[in-house]
Amino acid sequence: MAELPGPDAAEVPESQAAADVPDDLAGPDAAAAAARILESLRGSRGTVELLVVSDSEGRAAGARMLVRPDAVEGSLGDPELDAAALAAASRERLARGHGGSLHNLQTPAGRRLQVYAEGHRPRQELIVVGAGHIAQPLATLGTLLDFEVTVLDDRPEFATRERFPEAAAVRTIDFGDPLSGIDVHAGCHFVLVTRGHKYDYECLRRLLARHDAAQPAYIGMIGSRRRVRATFIQLEAEGIPHEVIAGVRAPVGLDIGAQTPAEIAISVLGEMILERRGGTGTPLRTRERIVERFLAKKPPTGSVK
User: Which of 108, 165, 189, 223 sits a CA distance of 20 to 30 A from 254?
Assistant: First the structure.
């Protein structure tokens, strides 16, 4: 097959799509697809758009499919190609990143398609509950990672724009109702780092009790093993399902030996990246084993004869 074109090759004129694609293959046109994607994102759901760049039989070039968590719109006119396109959409969704990628599809009969898959995910928010020392590097680094950062605290002297200049919003709240005015959706990442265990608990309890609503992408809570254990036991006693409690990252972060506020922030955000991108957390040196695999072993030097 010829060398893959760049992503700009996915821009197929509507006139070409209308001329080359039968009605039963076309799916949504560009305008309709954009409207449906925006509607999906407003509902805090991700969508993958699939566009056929080329077709060896010339029948499906320009066809679109939209893959949402609850529906698939459009078809390539062949069940095997549809299945392969859905697999490509799943890989794109798992990547959870920006942009898209090209995929080569082929049926057993030899028909070949080139499909451009682009994932669209809801806005990614980092909501830091607590405005203490750890919250500051969390907000700074979270902004660098393209999160829309909101910082919440009940102390006006801590929840200030001067302390969090990069944040999209800094709000003074009442911990009696910590989620008031917060749009909790599938793109939210909550980190609970308040000054007191009871405040962390109240916020966590309210987040987990939202059984019929979209759950946040990430909920992390700082705390010792004893404190986390007590929290989970109390949540279970209040009727929160075990599988829901098991999804909480607590103690929060990766084990990198973090001690300072900045190191703890890196540990927490590293866990978020791992969750989003699907990594293992294994050091790359350990995974690749380049020294062991490619360098000849030499006897130790300086030994006493």
Answer: 165
